[in-house]
Amino acid sequence: MKVLVTGGAGFIGSHIVHWLRRAGYEVVTADNLQTGKRANLPADVPLYELDIRDQAGLADLFAAERPQAVVHQAALANVRESMEDPITYAEVNIIGTLHLLELVKDYNCTKFIFASTGGAVYGEGSFPNRKAVEGDEEGRPSPGSPSLPFTEDSRPQPKDNYGANKLSCEHYIELYNQNYDLPYVILRYANVYGPRQDANGEAGVVAIFTGAMLSDQATHITGDGGQQRDFVYVDDVARANILALNSELSGTYNVGTGFPTDINTLYRQLADLTGYGRTPSRLPRPAGEVRATWLNCSKAGQELGWEAEIDLSEGLRRTVEWARTAAVTA
Ligand code: NAD
Fold first, then answer.
1. CATH assignment at residue 189
2. pLDDT of 13 higher than 80
């Protein structure tokens, strides 16, 4: 089967490409290299250097390659930027996805896999354990928020344009499924980390800390560092995409570890792994930042046979090892 991976030169996309090839798929990629890099891909993987806003360019790609499935990773994924430039974000993330859906429909593709975001689609959750936010008036979620961890049935309440973009795409994908029988899998990723991550991405905190610590630069923690996130290793995410592609089912699945980690804990683990001894400075907590998010992933376990296999300490060890090598060869 020939699979088109959009955003294939990016962090997660390039890992998916490697996993697809290992599983025997033929792969072509489309990426405008805005944040992706050609060097992230093996030399023999075709890369169409085009923007998903370019409808005619995508149509030419489909006519030439006739992919049977699409794994759609290309997106602008910076929450802060999405608030500053909502139009460009909607054009890339929503209109770009619609261009692909139209082609997937016209070419009768057998599967559309979509990278959504558990971090931004659900918004703020409430804590099952009040102690987790004791003393944190500022970060206390509003009453009525769904309780953590989020399940696929939790009511989505995006707090930023990026989350709204992704949720809007999810609705379109479900409509294409209802109206044109398009088989799909929506994967709502938690905070993904691992080798090749750029420090500017949605979950760049691991990359940011690792880069600064290895080069002995100053580090900063925003707020009190008690913010909780679900950090999932990129290989686990790539494997979820392969299982989604092989599955007969259409549906929406959380892809995370099911466990929260606070930023202070993450910081300490990375400082130990890198031998970093400096004290972080404290910056104000960004307005509107979600206090805590983590995902219940049992649906992916039951229906896709997927669960995260790489725990945080092993994932961070692999990430730091990769970053040390990348720093030497850069
Ligand atoms: P990334 O920036 O490394 O990858 C995105 C890729 O899309 C890049 O290669 C970029 O060049 C490409 N791209 C951007 N705009 C494009 C355009 N207009 N046309 C063509 N290509 C374009 O980021 P990533 O972390 O690998 O994210 C991959 C996907 O996963 C995104 O859809 C993102 O929203 C989603 N996601 C990521 C995380 C995370 O923690 N990293 C969490 C949830 C969801």
1. 3.40.50.720
2. yes
Q: How far is the CA of 93 from the centre of ligand 1 (A)?
A: 10
Q: Is the pTM of this model over 0.85?
A: yes
Nearest CA to ligand 1 atom 43: 117
- Respond yes or no: is residue 162 known to be catalytic: yes
Per-residue CA distances from 136 to 97, 123, 206, 294 (Å): 39, 18, 24, 18
DSSP H or E stretch at residue 233 = strand 231-233
Rounded Cα–Cα distance for residues 300 and 304 (Å): 5
* Ligand 1 site, residue 252, Cβ cutoff 6 A: no
* Boundaries of domain holding 239: 1-327
Residues paired with residue 191 on neighbouring β-strands, in sequence order:
231
205 lines ligand 1 (CB under 6 A): no
The structural domain count of the chain equals 1
Per-residue confidence (pLDDT) for residue 143, from 0 to 100 = 61
The tokens for 64 are 């030439």
Which ligand 1 atom is nearest residue 200's CA? Answer: 2
Q: What is the mean pLDDT of the chain?
A: 93
